[in-house]
Amino acid sequence: MAMLEFDDVDVFYGKVQALRGLSLQVEEGEIVALLGNNGAGKTTTLSTASALMNPSSGSVQFNGTDISKGKPWDVVGAGLIHVPEGRRIFSTLSVHENLLLGGYLVKNRALVASRLKHVYELLPLLEQRRSQQGGTLSGGEQQMLAIGRALIAGPKMLMLDEPSMGLAPLIVAQVMQVISDIRDQGTTVLLVEQNARAALKVTDRAYVIEEGATTLEGRAKDMIADPRIIDAYLGA
Ligand code: ATP
Fold this sequence. Notes:
Strand order of the largest sheet: 6-7-8-3-9-10
Largest sheet: 6 strands, mixed
Organism: Terrimesophilobacter mesophilus
Number of helices: 10
CATH class: Alpha Beta
Keywords: Amino-acid transport, ATP-binding, Nucleotide-binding, Transport
Family: Belongs to the ABC transporter superfamily.
Bound molecules: adenosine-5'-triphosphate
Strand content: 25-35%
Protein name: ABC transporter ATP-binding protein
Pfam family, one: ABC_tran
């Protein structure tokens, strides 16, 4: 059984249909990327997995539980954590305070402390900046903080929306490396990326989403060489 499974999912914003019979699976331990142009439905797919949007038909399962009529906090409690596009760092709070907010649903304080220690080991730059205000960090550092904050919640699966947005190529490579490290430490990852080239370097599999449905699926190493992907998403 897949960790996350969409089966023939339709989602509407009022009269606008954003997902049209979308199906996908993410297996435990994978990094899977969702590729596609603006407006294809990638962000809506993550919002639906987070139960911020509920489908009008079809089913969404996380770890064997149907979440298609669920509430966002139930999904977070089940270990599916969403890092939204734009990072949403609290700019006047310190790095440390931003991280602690990731643990607001975790009752066990010792667990939060041990996850904090782990995040500071994985992302030492956050420890160096722990007293600094979030708003004073660079874009790349803010992305690392958003990822670190999500890790404090103890995700079984992490969903990242456009983590490379607005970052220089060297920083994008660092973010992708961190995503790969997180997976190696046992967290499954679903990644939305416009930067298909950077994403396919670290992912196991990818789906192309077009007009609200998945139209291509494959192993990343095959997709990198697929002329349809090269023409549409990898450019010259
Ligand atoms: P982007 O990279 O631009 O975020 P995307 O692939 O993530 O693109 P979505 O944001 O999921 O695409 O949008 C899918 C479709 O749903 C688009 O046609 C979009 O215009 C529409 N849509 C998204 N959000 C809303 C909303 N809040 N209200 C109405 N329509 C929306």
